[in-house]
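Why does residue order matter? Because the sequence determines the fold. Keep that principle in mind as you read this record.
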Amino acid sequence: MNKDILSTTTHIDLQFDKEHLWHPYTSMANALPAFGVVAAKGVELQLQDGKTLIDGTSSWWACVHGYSHPKIVAAMQQQAATLSHVMFGGITHRPAVELARLLVNMTSPNLTKVFLADSGSIAVEVAMKMALQYWQGRAKPNKQKILTIKNGYHGDTFAAMSVCDPEGGMHTMFGDLVTKQLFAPAPQSRFDGEFDPEELNEIAAIFEDNHQQIAALLVEPIMQGAGGMRFYHPEYLSALRKLCDKYDVLLILDEIATGFGRTGKLFAYEHSDIEADILCLGKALTGGYISLAATLCSDEVAQGVSDSPAGVFMHGPTFMGNPLACSAAIASLELLQENIWQKQIKSIETQLKAELAEATAFDNVKDVRVLGGVGVLEMNTTLNTAELQQQFVDLGVWIRPFSNLIYIMPPYCITSAQLSQLTHAMKTVAKQISLPCNESVFISHG
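Structure:
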């Protein structure tokens, strides 16, 4: 294509964007700068000024196969030309059926029922509603509370906000409209350390005192994402499963960020060899190409919901089971089934551990941690997102820090050289951070 035509057809009016478009977690009075992206391929983003950036975020942890993957693109193109959307009420189609088949076969054996939703937040909402309706069907309608752990993040819609960290700035301003849930201390035993069973004392006491009101325990397995990129011990998750069994409470696992290989297992709960009663999936489900999420549950949960006074599950989004999104998901999951991701994640983890290790000696770095395809530098001070984002762009990478964290979760197909450029940029910027930033930044999912 002619360069002049390309520049005209791909031009982004950044000033109009700044004046009229709301971006995530930004102020319209003092908007953070936005960089115009005109194309993407592999792990690289092309800016409209011609600069190319290595993407260290997988577009908020979703684009695991990289951009413009021919298999996913072809699947979406073919589906768009055939059946891009049709209502799911009273109608079904091959992409939904085949996607559900893949999900049932690749998750734990007890998860047999699939609800296809629009986004991760909605998948969590669906899971919470399933839990409440389940207990209605089991003649225990007083079980209406959700127990969770601090430092969690589960989405921005109202029910999802109610189970996010209660002290996180993003969720404290909506008052009584946000349902008050039960919170236990966040796990402290590190993934790669010794497990301290005493840290279960407080959550066990909450179960003991409140189990007649608790419908479900909802947690992110092994990795707490936006609550601080914290990796906790597998034995803690195993103990939570046992507590749920002991006190007759459902276990909901939010694998929206961790699912599909990111932590080194296909699903993070595999580190603990447990099963969920309800499982939430999203983000990498479609390879990051289009929004789609899924909530899976057991036969027992599905039967309980069906036995509730409503007799049906009370949820049904307009774009539920969207064929276009389902086709992208099928292509993404088929790529995962080739099992190349296992070697890719292992290579990423090994390189991250080697190349980030020197940052442990930096005075302003509080902690360095790596798990699977996730690398984190936890700083001693809150970071200025806008300032650091520009520094990273100048270094040829796309890394978006938040709170006091500089982290990467790159696409699995990243090369060793590209990953080294990301880790070099992380260390370069981290070395320059010395003074506390006066600008407060809400803890968010990116």
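Confidence is low (pLDDT under 50) at residues 1-8, 435-446.
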